[in-house]
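Chapter review: from sequence to fold.
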Amino acid sequence: MEDFNKETKYLRAKERVDCLKKFYGNLVSYTLVISFLAIINYWTNEWRYMWFLWAAFGWGIGIIFHAIKTFNLNPFFGKDWEERKIKEIMREDEHQNRWE
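The token string follows.
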């Protein structure tokens, strides 16, 4: 039983690290690509029309949602909510099965 708990904790930690790696990889890609687009934008029209901001805005929204998921920032349906709901459903199910 103890080995099972250690393995479960290890798998959760590994999953968390993978999620963090993906987020930081996405963030680095965002920074590099948007910087490159800004440089191209400056060279082509010297900020007369900053079209690179459209890409920065669109991808930035994706980064924000990725951060919310990665760092469990959702106040309504985060990990804490999931755990509470699972325990509540398990208690209800256990209570129902007692009386059947």
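Two observations follow directly from the output. The chain has a mean pLDDT of 90. Helices lie at 2-45, 52-70, 79-99.
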